[in-house]
Design a protein that fits this description.
The structure is a homodimer. The first copy, chain A, is mainly α and about 190 residues long. The first copy, chain A, has nine helices and no strands.
Chain lengths: ~190, ~190
């Protein structure tokens, strides 16, 4: 090889997304992606296991960042506060990638094979958050419900952010989803302890 | 053909699960499943599109039942109350299938291809619930958060029910998860409207 590759990894992700949108996922080969990115197939496989994984670099980083945020959150916060903090501050790096996220969402919606991988990643992220909460001493059912419902707020906020044409931040959409959840689960006509 | 087939569909589901647990999903063919169930491959494909789908009969019924429950819920209920009602009453037919659900969970956890399909089905169910809520006049963000977080409570309750060795109902576990969510999102030290 020996050829100089400035951010081959990033170029491969962009090339793959472009091709999936242009001609469809099934009609795109790893060779096509490598060619578009100006690298060899061997370089592709040094970075990614297959042509699905190439779209999930940010998802893997997201999981690391969210889990780190759970681990380093103040001990005074409740499980749900920890999750809201982690879900809204963990993905700060995504704020600059709205256009890419929006195009990626189109490719996912059109391709069951990609959507399945996406859902498996989301499931993995929520499970990792539940495990990190348990490590803080939260009981298993509480940890699971907090991770799952918090993850739902993230997903709902993310989907709105990707679709809307405004200049609001991802973080503000995620906080809005958590606020909406608090409103919805607040049942004033039932007696409270 | 011409041969009498009492509940071939049900026998195929049981045979597939047995084989996936005995020898693994990858090592099981449609021919193996058909043979174990005492039917032809052709009969298999009359009932199921592939060897993943054979484990998702109950999931499809679950979605129909939950969506029907959303549609027929009293107009006086809040979105979250509608979702809790639908998620806890929709799956009544599952109460009799705890042992099967438990074995199925083992097969899913061991097989990414099955887990991906499961997650796609769950995503479809939650989307269908969100659409049914919107049809009741609920705004899109509220509908999405209610469907996603309600679905999370269902999943958390279902997972506990499948794992625990007691005689509690699935419905009681699901209600407990919703109660846990209400507790968790109740933040007493913040001022309330």
């Amino acid at each position: 090889m020996g050829r100089w590759e400035p951010d081959a990894r990033g170029r491969l992700s962009v090339a793959a997304l472009d091709l999936y949108l242009e001609r469809g996922y099934d009609q795109t080969t790893v060779a096509d992606i490598a060619e578009r990115a100006g690298v060899t197939e061997r370089t592709f496989f040094r970075h990614f296991a297959d042509k699905r994984e190439v779209l999930f670099d940010a998802t893997n980083q997201l999981q690391n960042d969210v889990v780190s945020a759970v681990q380093s959150a103040s001990a005074e916060l409740s499980p749900m506060q920890v999750v809201e903090l982690a879900m809204s501050e963990g993905p700060v790096f995504l704020e600059q990638r709205r256009a890419h996220a929006s195009r990626r969402a189109v490719a996912l919606a059109a391709t069951p094979a990609l959507m399945e991988r996406e859902l498996l990643k989301i499931y993995g992220l929520r499970t990792a958050v539940a495990v990190a909460l348990e490590a803080r001493g939260v009981d298993p059912l509480t940890a699971r419900v907090a991770a799952e419902t918090g993850g739902s707020c993230f997903s709902a906020g993310f989907a709105q952010w990707v679709e809307a044409e405004d200049d609001r931040t991802l973080s503000s959409y995620i906080h809005e989803a958590f606020a909406q959840l608090r409103l919805m689960t607040d049942v004033p006509h039932q007696p409270r302890g």
